Amino acid sequence: MQTDGILIGVIADESRGFRRLLGVGIAGFLIALSGVACASSQGAESGSSTQTVPPVAAGATPSSQAGVAPAATGADNAPTTEALGAEALRYVRVLSTELGPRDTESGGEQKAAAFLAQEFQAAGLQVQQQGFSVVVMLRSEPRLTVTAPAARDVSAEPMIGSDEGIGQGVLIFGGLGKAADLPTGGLKRKVALFERGEIRFQEKAENAARAGALALVVSNNAAGPLFGSLLAGVGIPVVGISRDDGQSLKELLAQGEVMVRVAIKRVQLPSANVIAELPANNPANNPANNKGGIVIVGGHYDTIPGVPGANDNGSGVAVLLTLAKEIARKRYPFTVRLVGFGAEELGLWGSRRYVESLPAEERSRIKAVMNLDVVGAQALIGALGDAALAQDLKAQAASMGLSLGVVSGDVSSDHLSFTREGIPAVILTTPDFSVIHTPEDTVDRLEPLRLGQTAALVLGYLEALGQR
Ligand SMILES: [Zn+2]
Predict the structure, then answer these.
(1) What's 98's DSSP letter?
(2) How far is the CA of 145 from the centre of ligand 1 (A)?
C-alpha cells in the first residue's frame, strides 16, 4: 500500500521531510509517487500470460486449510462474524509464519501464489494464474559500501527512476547539492554526498552529474531511511540513506579521506496474479447470461522483503481465502472474481497488468471492485475510492449494524489501477499503518474481529447486489 502519493513504508517527499506512511512496498524499491502511483518508471515489463492452474502437488505449499471445519453459522446459516474472523486469522498465521516474507525478489511471492491457487481450487473455484514480469532494483546486493578507511556496508535505497550502474571513488560532501554549494574542487570522478532539503532530488542529481560525479548519495534530513524518486535518470546511480548514516559519513570525512562504492542493479523478475472465479448463476446456461455483471474482490499477496506482512497484506489475502469457501457455496446473478494481485509493493504492477488485460467490453461489466489491503488493525474498517460505491458499502454496513470508519489521505493501493480506468473501485482498510513494513507486522497484533467484519461486509454486499 502507498499513501499521499508516496510509497509505502517510508517515502520522502522532498520538502516535508519524512513521514512513516503505509507500507509499501519498500521492496526492491519504492515508487515515490507524487500524488499518483506511477510505477512505470520501474522499467519495461514483458507481456503477460494467463494459464489455468494445474492441481498443486502435495507438500509444495503449506498444508491446505480447505479441509478445516467450515465456519460456525448463525441462525440464517450465514457464518458468524467471529467465525469468519477466526478462519481468516488462521490463514494469516499460515501466510505470515509458515510462508513468511512474500516479496517478489526472494521467491516468497511465488510460494504464496501456489498456496492461494491451492486454496482457491480446494474451495471449488476456477483458478487461473496471470503471469507477468517486473523490473526491480536488486536488494540482495549492497548499494552503498564504504571501502576505506574501514570496509562496511551502509543501508541505502535506490532512488526511484535512478539509472543503474556502479560509481566508486572518493566521497565528497556537497551540502544541499545546490549549484552554489558544490565544492570548489568539483566532483569530477568523485562520489557526492548531499543532504536532503530545499531543492528537489532531481536538481541535486543533475548538479552532481553535471559536476562529473560518478554517483550520488543523499542523506535524509529526518529520522529513518530515505525513499526518494527522480523524474528522470541522470546517468549515474543515486541512492538515499538515513540521517544517522549521513551523519556518520560526515564524521568519517572529518577524520580523513573516505572511499565508497555505489551500485544499483536491475533485474527482471516473474510475478503473477492469482484469479479465482465463481461464474454467474446461469441455470439455463443461456450465453446471454454470461454477459452479466462482474464483481471483483482483490488484495495484493506480496510483501516487502524481510517482513512477516501479517497485516500488509496477509489480512486482506486471508479474508479473500475465507470468502472463497463461503462464496463457492453460493450462486450470484453476476460473476464473482477473487484476485490476489502480485507485485503491488513494487508499484501496483499486478493490478495494473490485470486491468490492462481486460477487454473494454469486460471492463464495462464490472459492477464493483473491493480491494482489501491492511484489514486487520484495531481501527474501524473504512472505504475509500469511488464515492458511490463507498457510500453503498457504508449503507450495507449500517444495515448490518457495522459502522465504517473514515480513511483520510491519499491512500494508493490496487484499487487505483481500476479507478484510473473509470471502473468503480474502493479500498477497504483499517487505517492504522504504524507497524506495517516492519518486522513488527505480526499476526499477534491483528484484530480478528476486523477480519471477520471485512468478510461479513463483502458477503453481505454480494448478497444485497444479488437482490437488486
Ligand atoms: Zn498493502
Answers:
(1) I
(2) 30
Residue 103 Cα, ligand 1 centroid: separation in angstroms? Answer: 12
Q: Which amino acid is at 193?
A: L
Give first-to-last CA distance, the chain, whole Å.
32
Cα(399) to ligand 1 centroid in Å equals 28
Q: What is the pLDDT of residues 362-406, one digit of tens each?
A: 999 999 999 999 999 999 999 999 999 999 999 999 999 998 888
Query: How far does residue 395's CA lie from ligand 1's centre (Å)?
Result: 25
Q: Using omega within 30 degrees of 0 as the cis cutoff, is the peptide bond preceding 285 cis? A: no
**pTM score over 0.90:** no
Q: Where are the domains of the chain?
A: 6-136+268-466, 144-264
How many Å lie between the centroid of ligand 1 and the Cα of residue 53?
25
Residue 414 Cα to ligand 1 middle (Å): 9
pLDDT score, position 65? 53
Q: What CATH number belongs to 144-264?
A: 3.50.30.30
Q: Measure 317 CA to ligand 1 centroid, in angstroms.
A: 10
Least confident of 219-233, 350-364, 450-464: 219-233
Which CATH number fits the domain 6-136+268-466, given the four candidates 1.10.10.10, 3.40.190.10, 3.40.30.10, 3.40.630.10?
3.40.630.10
- CA trace torsion 378, 379, 381, 382 (10° rounding): -160
Q: Predicted confidence band at 183 (pLDDT cuts at 50, 70, 90)?
A: confident
Ligand 1 centroid to 187 CA: how many Å? 40
* Cis peptide, bond prior to residue 424, ω within 30 of zero: no
Return the minimum-mean-pLDDT range out of 52-56, 197-201, 253-257, 444-448.
52-56
Q: 23 CA to middle of ligand 1, Å?
A: 6
Q: How many CB atoms lie within 10 A of CB 60?
A: 11
Instruction: Kindly give the distance from the C-alpha atom of residue 304 to the centroid of ligand 1, in angstroms, as a whole number.
Output: 9
Q: How far is the CA of 1 from the centre of ligand 1 (A)?
A: 4
Mean pLDDT of 11-29: 39
Overall average pLDDT of the 70-77 stretch: 56
